[in-house]
Amino acid sequence: MVSVLVAPDKFKGSLTADDVARAVERGLLEGASHARVRRLALADGGEGSVAAACSGRFDAEKITVTGPTGQLVTALVAVHGRTVLVEAAAVCGLGVLPGGHKAPLTATSRGIGQALQYALAGEPDTIVLALGGVATTDGGAGLLQSLGAVLAREDGTPIGPGGRGLAELDGVELSEARAALAGVDLVLATDVDNPLLGPTGTAAVYGPQKGASASDVRELDAALGTFVRRLEAAGVADATRLAATPGAGAAGGLGFAGMLLGGRVCSGADYFLTLLGADELLAESDFVVTGEGSLDEQSLSGKLPVALARRARWQGRPVHAVVGRCTLPDDRTAAHFRSVQALTALTDQDCANDSALSARLLAQCGRTLAERWIGSRDGEAPLRGPAQ
Fold this sequence. Notes:
alpha/beta, Rossmann fold, 2 domains, five-stranded parallel β-sheet, elongated, disordered C terminus
């Protein structure tokens, strides 16, 4: 019996990773009913990380915390043994803004700190903070404040919310926040390597996505610079070094705040592949199907499908990709994937904003894979022909 692992990332704005996997599975089984198909929904640390974890070995727990503009938000965290996964996007993401109204200067990460407090109450060994998709650019100031850090104006009162509040910062004391995470392995899962400040920093690169104008970007970057200088003045000697570390600019600077608390940045793709047991499933599979919404230049820097393909290659397992769109020529994808199917090549309609159409086309891709690479006879091995 042919064993197939279907392990995609989400198609952002259209389908969750599990939705994608189920649609491909349906098509595979329609074309090769004898195949054994297993699903593994993946995430790289951004939106959908909790859902991916809970489709595997983790359990979901509901929390209520402060959202990016001060409203209460109900979110899920994922728990397995003494490991807790907190998804930043679920707490202070663009998707939880009331009415979708952006607040680039004042959105706060306070709810992330509250989620960490919830996690800490269970005395975990490891807390994974999945970074990505947030509405905030406050350098993690709100997170630090909710864990007990003092971020004060000259008159001793707390600074206001968001990146704008950091411009008023005069005094900093982090000892209580740092003590709260003492002894806990804080994992900062992201595939973003931006520093905190400057032309490739969090405000400049991601601020416009959060509604920041050109003048807002300048204001936010200057305020974050003030944050770093005040930290150094308060005795945090490595603040400048941490601000320049790849990943410090992840999730509006939550990466920087996490580093201040002793956290370690790691590749979200590789961390989640290990966390969800991908290597064990690869070893038991004849071939693999993966995918994401857009297979492009950024994908080749180590995003989930390529990271999975790399691991599969180590085990001698061929990998096929089904994607929303592909902007890369065949000679750029051939090193990673035996074949690539893009939904945009199958329709003139806007499948990126039509989840039902995307699911039907993914099932069609699954049937094509079954016909070309599995065959219809029970027990037939995957075909080993040239890339399609």
